[in-house]
Amino acid sequence: MQQVHGGASPRAKARRSRPQRLTLKKQEALTGWLFVSPVMIGFLVFTAFSMLYSLYISFTDWNILSDPHMVGWQNYINLFTRDVFFGEYLWNTIYYVLLLVPSVLVISLFFAILLNKTVKGLTSFYRASLFLPCVISTVAIALVWKWLLNSQSGTINGILRMLGVDNPPMWLLDTKWAKFSIVLVRIWQMSGYYMVMFLTGLQTIPSSLYEAARVDGANRFQQLTRITIPMLSPTTFAIVILLVLEAFNIFEAVMIMTEGSLGTSSLMYYVYRLAFSSYRMGYASALAWVLFLIILLFTVARFLLKKDEVM
């Protein structure tokens, strides 16, 4: 008996459509890789390769003009045993971290809480005003503040003299004030950026929590310590990591305002001087990797200590 087929069975159709689906997935994957390939190539050439090459030359003695020759761990040994500047500049960097991180954290949170309330016509203006410094070049800001902090003709000392201060601080001419001046400038520049991050976190906190707290008789300080700060712990965690990274890598303000004099040089500025003033590329690379490891250890420790809070 001849069997009449009115059409292909569902199984046969599925077998024929499967290669088409695979081809479509391959085309989508290829399109995706084509879109990300410029970024990947840039990362591999300018970041990954550069890092690996710097690790290689950190084990060499190289002054650019001659071929590098291997010295093994000698650069690292000299850094910890013979370099009289390493300890001083490491302390300066830690000083910047210890002052910048808590100061920016508190100031940015303070302004975020103030600006979290909507005031018609004013909120947007103040948010933009506080955020503006962080989008301006650090070099330009350092140049302006260098003029403002001028001991003789600077605006700040002029205002202090008008207020009756006979001997205002010698901001950028006194070892006692130079590092603090750099910290002051960076606090002014950085606070607006992290204020926006805190604002984002504040807007995710349900208003019903505050309403319930007010019903229970909690005052504003109790609401801050029992609701706001605990609920902001993931945002605070991310901000602290970013702040520490930025503080450890402080460079432009030091270079423009003091050129590393008066005990203000950071490890990052020391790397710059070794590499581009003394042309000791191998030694500068070793110092850069030590700085990288210090930051990495802090970041890992921070993740381990605060993992439960973020989860």
Question: How is this structure best described in words?
Answer:
By secondary structure, this protein is mainly alpha-helical. Helices cover 73% and strands 1% of the residues. The protein is built from 13 helices and two strands. It has a two-stranded antiparallel ribbon. A hairpin with a 7-residue loop joins strand 1 and strand 2. The protein is flat and about 70 Å long. The termini are far apart.
Unreliable stretches: 1-5
What integer is the average pLDDT? 87
Envelope shape: flat
Largest pleated sheet: 2 strands, antiparallel
Mind telling me the C-alpha Rg?
28 Å
The proportion of residues in beta strands is under 5%
> Which class of secondary structure composition applies to the elements?
mainly alpha
Helices and strands, in order, run as HEEHHHHHHHHHHHH
Helix content: over 70%
| Strand order in the largest sheet | 1-2
Compute the number of helices. Answer: 13
Distance between the termini: 70 Å
Total strands: the figure is 2
